[in-house]
């Protein structure tokens, strides 16, 4: 097993540019090519998994990060996101602690949720979607404007600015 961080995929190398100024070898011809994946959820998914798929797949597709080679990994991401949502709902309804006889124990949903969140974070990093992996990307986006102090912020202008920089929110 190789030591050190996993190699960055070429599409992420291209987006992040050459921050160090050294000769970066980007050889896309050696990487497998794949056509964009269908946004249609695969069969055998639960209702919650289909909802998550339909919410998240277009984001990856629009960013050019969703190909047929990525569907199995994306399905793993979706399934773990569903586990996180189910555990969160369970914790809200049943509570964080359970009474077992005279003892108070933590809900098993806490551990399950923590493990699923860790898997979601790892997979999102592989897609270039975690905050740390995004921080190295150079998409050429402008910085959001700064409102001078003393000016009152107009909510309609703030919404327009948010939409311009972060896309339309669902």
The tally of beta strands, per DSSP, is 2
Question: Structural class of the helices, strands and pairings?
Answer: mainly alpha
Poorly predicted regions are: none
Q: Biggest sheet, in brief? A: 2 strands, antiparallel
In terms of DSSP E residues, the strand content is under 5%
As laid out across the biggest beta sheet, the strand order is 1-2
Alpha-carbon distance between the two ends? 42 Å
Name the helicity range. Answer: 40-55%
Average of the residue pLDDT scores: 77
Quaternary structure classification: single chain
Radius of gyration: 21 Å
Global geometry: globular
Secondary-structure element string: HHHEEHHH
Task: Please outline what is shown here.
The chain has a domain at 46-129. The protein contains six helices and two strands, in the order αααββααα. It has a two-stranded antiparallel ribbon.
Description:
By secondary structure, the chain is mostly helical. It has a domain of 84 residues. 48% of the residues lie in helices and 5% in strands. A two-stranded antiparallel sheet has the order 1-2. Strand 1 and strand 2 form a beta hairpin. The mean pLDDT is 77.
């Amino acid at each position: 097993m190789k030591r050190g961080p996993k190699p960055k995929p070429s599409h992420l190398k291209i987006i992040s540019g050459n921050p160090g100024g050294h000769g970066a070898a980007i050889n896309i011809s050696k990487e497998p090519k794949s056509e964009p994946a269908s946004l249609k959820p695969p069969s055998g998914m639960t209702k919650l998994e289909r909802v998550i798929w339909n919410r998240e797949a277009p984001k990856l597709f629009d960013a050019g990060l969703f190909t047929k080679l990525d569907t199995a990994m994306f399905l793993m991401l979706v399934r773990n996101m569903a586990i996180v949502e189910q555990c969160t709902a369970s914790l809200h309804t049943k509570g964080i602690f359970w009474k077992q006889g005279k003892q108070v124990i933590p809900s098993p949903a806490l551990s399950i949720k923590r493990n699923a969140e860790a898997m979601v974070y790892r997979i999102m990093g592989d897609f270039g979607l975690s905050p740390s992996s995004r921080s190295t990307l150079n998409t050429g986006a402008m910085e959001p404007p700064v409102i001078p102090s003393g000016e009152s912020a107009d909510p309609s202008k703030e919404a327009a600015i948010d939409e311009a920089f972060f896309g339309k929110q669902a």
